[in-house]
Design a protein that fits this description.
The complex is a heterodimer of chains A (326) and B (332). Chain A is mostly helical. Chain A is built from 13 helices and 2 strands; from the N terminus they run H-H-H-H-H-H-H-E-E-H-H-H-H-H-H. Chain A has a two-stranded antiparallel sheet with strand order 1-2. The N and C termini of chain A lie close together (9 Å). In chain B, helix 4 crosses helix 5. The chains are: A mainly alpha (326), B alpha/beta (332). The interface between A and B is medium-sized, with 25 and 31 residues.
Chain lengths: 326, 332
């Protein structure tokens, strides 16, 4: 177990270095930050002076070296716009995004699993067919259309749920602003988390269905039937546990898609999270903030996949992390 | 009363174009404690027959007509709940490949205990004791340790023992063993076979052994059913069938045994191969491969008749019997 984690951490370091190079490399391709920072009246000489102060006139490797030195000390640069350490700015927005993602994942697990199982057990049932049709539509319709439609129907027409912001939040331990514990906060979560979940749902419904159908054909399921076990036990213990193995792996990979979708969802619902911040940072050419975001997201991705591998090891007895030191 | 009686069983496979017959007019009986074998090449319908007995034919197969009676209960008319009571408790099955039969993500113990607990109201601890006792019974060393292990930690032979133990848990009346030794290597084959035989004999359990290996069959079964292309072609005491096979197909099978050929010689074989379900020949299904086939064999389906040794469906045997009968009449 320890060896596994250690190896994973070394791997993560390499991944992070590559991510940092890439995110740093795109910095000076986004536009001129100075133009965004100063007014029209500032002369060319003054602009160049600012550029010198910011170190923007140095060579790429010199700039990266300064940046990397900072990163090791936990300093991902200072946001041009907020004039604060970029990491602090991002971490302040992290709870909002994590809560949104958490709720979306919860909805996906709670809805996609029974839907996928149903579609696999009774493939000819009208409901299963409907599910398959809906999921193919869901796969092909972009998330922002779904989100805008939901805002239109539930917020504007039916006035059931608010369409922007986080609503009332409370602070936990003075460092985590949570909307999960107030009625208003939860209300504000409904539409964004639902749209995010809908974006991820179809692929999981289809994956669970396909895997489950394959598992149901296997000999050990037939053997389970021949032992006279109840259908419930066969479907939900024997078959589902095997079905979930590939689903867990895909789930980890989908974490990347989830991040991409949070940017869209947060922008549409004016959700004050990291994704929303990122869009602002891009339009303001706040390059330190952009690269800090990419590094934080990269870190989240690495952590998620490590956790997914740990869960996989727990579910699949043929993978013993400790003994193989994988 | 017979423990199990199958009569005029027809099993079809549903396809888009047509209904394909996998079993045609199959009948046989099984007495309490009796051991029978079902033999034939791949595709003869042996496994389908085995699975039909507990109504567990995989889709798109289904029982079209006929009856399967366990004592006086009709299995073909049972609903899923009633079938679940029969499966495992009265009729248990052993599958061909022990590597595929156990669920890889559940422990041996889980898979044994669930069988007991789904049929009897019993607490976990008692169920565990029964399971460990049965593991001991099938000569598994340190059963307590194996109980908590996963299938992948056991060898193939060991897994087949676990499966036999799991089949014994509820003291069934019938065990259906579908090629239980085919996937194992030869030394283990003999051990598993011996174990199966001992267990059936000691507990008075009836056995339906499905096999293509006549050597295996001759050691275990008292009676043998030979199948070809969904038909029963010959049925009788194993000894008689092996010493004096009547049907040309049975003769061919026996001739194909390696023991029937001198070392260095080419092994005997039956020319041609088993027809697929969709291309079943007219008349006697075996006629394209039969060295004695006549015009009649190509057109008509032979009846099942008692030859004095075994029951056979073959015109050759029927004609011979008729000839004898005529001569007898002339003589008298």
């Amino acid at each position: 177990m320890l060896i596994f984690l250690l190896r994973r951490m070394i791997q993560a370091c390499f991944v992070m270095i590559i991510i940092s190079v890439i995110s740093f490399a795109i910095q000076d391709k986004l536009g001129d930050p100075v133009q965004q920072m100063v007014g029209m009246s500032v002369s060319l000489e003054e602009r160049n002076q600012i550029r010198d102060e910011l170190g923007l006139n140095d060579g790429f490797f010199v700039q990266y070296w300064h940046f990397a030195k900072g990163v090791i000390h936990g300093d991902l640069g200072t946001s041009y716009y907020y004039k604060e350490p970029a990491l602090d700015v991002i971490l302040k927005k992290l709870p909002a995004t994590l809560e949104l993602a958490f709720c979306a994942i919860l909805i996906v697990i709670l809805v996609a699993t029974p839907c996928g199982v149903l579609a696999a057990i009774k493939p000819k049932h009208a409901l299963s067919r409907l599910l398959m049709i809906i999921s193919s539509i869901g796969l092909s319709v972009p998330i922002f259309i779904v989100a805008i439609l939901m805002v239109y129907i539930f917020s504007i027409e039916l006035n059931m749920a608010p369409s922007f912001g986080r609503g009332q939040t409370i602070e936990i331990f003075g460092l985590w602003e949570s909307g999960l514990f107030t009625k208003d906060g939860l209300k504000h979560l409904i539409l964004p988390s639902l749209s995010l979940a809908i974006a991820l749902m179809p692929i999981f419904v289809r994956l669970i269905r396909a895997e489950m159908m394959e598992v149901l054909q296997s000999e050990y399921i037939r053997f389970a039937w021949s032992k006279g076990l109840s259908a419930r036990r066969i479907y939900f213990i024997h078959a589902l546990k095997n079905t979930m193995l590939p689903v867990i792996t895909v789930g980890g990979i989908q974490a990347g898609t989830l991040v991409a979708y949070t940017i869209l969802t947060e922008t549409i619902f004016q959700w004050p999270g990291m994704g929303f911040l990122f869009m602002d940072a891009v339009s303001r050419v706040d390059t330190p903030l952009v690269s800090a975001y990419l590094i934080v997201v990269g870190g989240i991705f690495v952590i998620t996949n490590t956790v997914v591998d740990l869960i996989y090891g727990l579910v699949n007895p043929t993978v013993r992390l400790a003994s193989h030191g994988l | 009363m017979n423990l199990l009686s199958v009569s005029n069983l027809h099993v079809n496979f549903h396809t888009k174009e047509q209904e394909l017959a996998a079993l045609i007019d199959v009948s046989f009986t099984l007495n309490r404690g009796e051991r029978i074998a079902i033999v034939g090449e791949s595709g003869a319908g042996k496994s389908v027959l085995g699975f039909s007995i507990v109504n567990l034919i995989g889709k798109p197969g289904y029982i079209d007509s006929g009856s399967i009676k366990l004592e006086n209960k009709e299995i073909t008319k049972m609903n899923l709940r009633q079938l679940q009571e029969v499966r495992g408790k009265r009729i248990a099955m052993i599958f061909q490949d022990p590597m595929m039969t156990l669920n890889p993500v559940l422990t041996i113990g889980d898979q044994l205990v669930e069988t007991i607990r789904s049929h009897t109201k019993i607490n976990y601890k008692d169920a565990r004791n029964i399971a460990i006792e049965k593991l001991h019974h099938v000569q598994i060393a340190s059963p307590e340790k194996r109980f908590d292990q996963y299938p992948h930690e056991l060898s193939g032979g060991m897994r087949q023992r676990v499966i036999i133990a799991s089949v014994l848990l509820l003291n069934p009346d019938i065990i259906i063993a579908d090629e239980p030794t085919t996937a194992l290597d030869v030394t283990i084959q003999a051990e598993i076979l011996q174990l199966l035989l001992t267990i059936c004999r000691d507990n008075g359990v009836a056995l339906v052994l499905i096999s293509h290996d006549l050597g295996v069959v001759s050691k275990v079964a008292e009676r043998t059913i030979v199948m070809y292309a969904g038909h029963v072609v010959e049925e009788g005491p194993t000894l008689e069938i092996i010493n004096d096979p009547q049907h040309p197909y049975t003769q061919g099978l026996l001739n194909a045994l390696p023991q029937m050929t001198l070392p260095g010689q080419r092994l005997n074989q039956i020319q041609g191969s088993m027809p697929s379900l969709a291309e079943r020949p007219s008349g006697c299904a075996f006629h394209p491969r039969c060295p004695y086939a006549t015009q009649k064999c190509r057109q008509e389906q032979p009846r099942f008749i008692f030859s004095g040794v075994s029951s056979v469906a073959c015109f050759l045997v029927e004609d011979m019997l008729n000839e004898f009968a005529d001569k007898d009449q002339e003589a008298s």
